[in-house]
From TrEMBL:
InterPro entries: DUF4913. Pfam families: DUF4913. This is DUF4913 domain-containing protein. Residues 118-151 are annotated as: Disordered.
Amino acid sequence: MTEDAQRNQAIRHDADIRRDEEDTARPAELFYPNVGEFVADRFIYFVPCPTPESGRTWCPEWYRHAEALSRLDAIWRAWEALRWDAGLGMSNWWLHHVDPHVGALLNPVTGPFARCADGHQTPEPLPMATPPEGLFTDQRSPVSRDPFALG
């Protein structure tokens, strides 16, 4: 191989590496603009409506339940990331995201919709006593107490 051919090959190789790095750094384009669109267009058709005999409960006003909103957002974001994996993506999505989250969401005893069998009910927050002053420190800029820590 001539010196010019080697130089051209190296230039093409460097360009390929830069292009791959740029593609990797660029976030994947979302199919759905938000979790609401995902639930309305896809999720409600993938997950069957619970039957009365199943004991499971779904709330049509799911977006008014903080836990449901958080779990469904996680399901949507996992779908957006895993849909690109033609091999195992959807299997992983169902097994590791949908199945456990839907089980928790529709649980008739502990799920966020447990009291919504006859229509939406606003969930009660957990009771909480005010913690003693100074018990918790601001962790946004933690200062290490480790004498061997750098910085």
